[in-house]
Amino acid sequence: AKGAAVTVDVAPATGYQLDKLIVKDASDRIVNTNNNKFTMPASNVTVTATFKKAGYYVAIGSIANGTITADSTYAEVGETVILTVKPHTGYELDTLVVKDASNKTVTVTDGKFTMPASNVTVTATFKITKYLVEIASTANGSVKVDPDKYAKGETVTLTVEPATGYELDQLTVKNASGKKVAVNDNQFAMPASKVTVTATFKLSTYGITVAKPTNGTV
Prior knowledge:
about 220 residues; 5-stranded mixed β-sheet; rod-shaped
């Protein structure tokens, strides 16, 4: 009847939301709507609705030792969201996790994920970067290190084992730029880069002591 309050029940499909709700009377005049409700005019009415892909928010959780940013803070369902990871100096990414509103994990590949039909929260953890100690091949002896990765500033101890009849000649450590790293008693402080250790060995030399003979010379 005229003047009756009418509520339109809108049920978007999964991943969609209402875009426009239009009510027109028999003369094709628009009837005002508010929160999917309208007052019935003195005529039949036609209700039309359009739907669009639903959009949801991307939130970044509390993160230490680095930052994460998203190229979109609001994305439609099915849209690809790109995450940019920036560790602080001396750190690297350990875990990168995206979860929806139900705490379900969203798959992340190469820093990208597909927006689900839910708000999401991005969290990440960073760990101290450890750099590789690479031992170059050697002859007449060996150099060992365990473990083979260290954080900047950590003391690295090299175990030098000459082959029988040989002794260490030179022990050299260089960083990724080819700059020498100071070595003292087969130890050095790890720089903020990979290092390469090279060693050379030489034949051992020994002294000869001649006992003073009698009645002759040696």
